[in-house]
Write a structure and sequence with these properties.
The chain contains 5 helices and no strands. It is an all-alpha fold. Helix 1 crosses helix 2 (30-58) and helix 2 runs antiparallel to helix 3 (61-97).
């Protein structure tokens, strides 16, 4: 039963992750983006067993474990780097446009028209 729950979540949960990272105007094509995700995963799923077999024949079964561990380590590092980059980008966006005292609206006056800034300031 535990296997069924875990296996089912491995098939269903990636779609929610895809929904978080695709652009808002692409939400209608969530199925297409999920298909792209699974299509890219299948390349590695098909390449994994021959690589593991070659490692086992050339070295030992321990080499397969080291290869799997190294791949997991690299995946974890890349995921962490992506999360940190996303966090930094969110902080930069918030600090530039998120000021509640209207000072960031003054900076926007150089980018947008003065009328737009006045309308935005009136909304504060």
């Amino acid at each position: 039963m535990v296997f069924g729950v875990l296996a089912g979540s491995m098939l269903g949960l990636p779609a929610s992750g895809v929904a978080q990272i695709i652009p808002a105007d692409s939400q209608d094509s969530l199925g297409v983006w999920t298909g792209i995700l699974w299509s890219s995963c299948c390349v590695f799923a098909l390449a994994g067993p021959p690589i593991a077999g070659a490692l086992r024949e050339q070295f030992s079964i321990e080499a397969v474990g080291y290869w799997a561990g190294a791949n997991l380590l690299v995946a974890g590092l890349l995921s962490t780097a992506a999360m940190l980059a996303s966090s930094v980008a969110d902080d930069t966006k918030q600090s530039h446009f998120g000021s509640s005292d209207g000072s960031s609206l003054h900076e926007l006056g150089h980018v947008m028209g003065r009328e737009d800034v006045e309308i935005a300031r009136a909304g504060l």
